[in-house]
């Protein structure tokens, strides 16, 4: 059975989990971290080739939607958010091309750096993410 290499809403929703985990790693989500995610969605994620994105570029807004839901619920279980992303990544590894992995790292670093630089919690999570994305 041939795997579909197009990015889906579920793909972007799982990225929302990841980026929320990065922002909330220090048990606080700063408004600047939210703004940074929104800016990167507009400037980078919406530019993904429509042939790769099953819904056109608008599906990238699912990252922002999930991030906002988690933030409103004050869901500070960042480890679960991160683990959910890793489970999805492992199940759908074929979607994580080199350019997508690079954009994930770029986005995660921008979020972590946006408010008072990267703290220890964020650095640890970023290192774990980098290691995970370098697998296979």
Quick summary of this structure?
With 136 residues, the chain is mainly alpha-helical.
Explain what the structure shows.
The mean pLDDT is 88. The chain starts with 8 loop residues before the first helix and ends with a helix. The protein is mainly alpha-helical. It contains 6 helices and no strands. The longest helix has 16 residues.
What spatial form do the alpha-carbon principal axes imply? Answer: globular
**Largest sheet at a glance?**
none
The SSE string, one letter per element, is HHHHHH
The amount of beta strand, in percent, is under 5%
- The overall strand count is 0
Spans of at least 5 consecutive residues whose pLDDT stays below 50 are: none
Report the span from N to C terminus. Answer: 20 Å
Q: What Rg is obtained from the alpha carbons, in whole angstroms?
A: 14 Å
Residue-averaged pLDDT: 88
Task: Set down the secondary structure blueprint.
Elements: H1 9-23, H2 31-43, H3 61-72, H4 78-91, H5 98-113, H6 120-134
Helix pairs in contact: 1-3, 1-4, 1-5, 2-3, 2-5, 5-6
What labels describe this entry?
136 residues; mainly alpha; globular; 6 helices
């Amino acid at each position: 059975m041939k795997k579909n290499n197009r990015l889906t809403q579920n793909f972007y929703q799982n990225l929302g989990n990841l980026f929320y985990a990065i922002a909330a790693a220090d048990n606080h989500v700063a408004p600047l971290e939210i703004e940074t995610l929104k800016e990167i969605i507009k400037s980078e994620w919406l530019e993904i080739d429509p042939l790769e994105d099953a819904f056109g570029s608008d599906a990238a807004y699912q990252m922002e939607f999930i991030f906002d839901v988690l933030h409103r619920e004050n869901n500070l279980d960042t480890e679960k958010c991160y683990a959910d992303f890793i489970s999805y990544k492992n199940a759908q590894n074929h979607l994580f091309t080199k350019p997508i992995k690079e954009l994930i790292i770029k986005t995660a670093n921008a979020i972590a750096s946006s408010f008072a630089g990267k703290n220890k919690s964020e650095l640890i999570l970023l290192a774990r993410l980098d290691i995970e994305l370098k697998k296979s």
